Amino acid sequence: MKKIARVEDIPVGGTKLVFMNDTPIVLLNIKGKIQAWDNRCPHRGASLADGNILESTIQCKFHLWEFDIELACAVANSDIKVKTFYLKVQDGDIFIQI
Ligand code: FES
To answer: Ligand 1: does its nearest atom lie under 6 Å from the Cβ of 46?
Structure first.
């Protein structure tokens, strides 16, 4: 696993874009819980880090698809998944395995 960011780098209810081995990864901070997703929208690859975070969803700004943050899939079709990465938080450091 590799350290990629600190928890305080990501505002609550916000995102941070990082790269690992040239893979763009969006870190999401939802009420203090951190998640790591492939930053490329499953529709046409727009940056999810630029999306709008709502209560339990993130909306891609390009064509307004919404994704359930807990389930990491499209709200309208759960078969459309967002790629996620396993992460671990230790002493405020975020480690990711890809
Ligand atoms: S690229 Fe995200 S909704 Fe189309």
So the answer is: yes
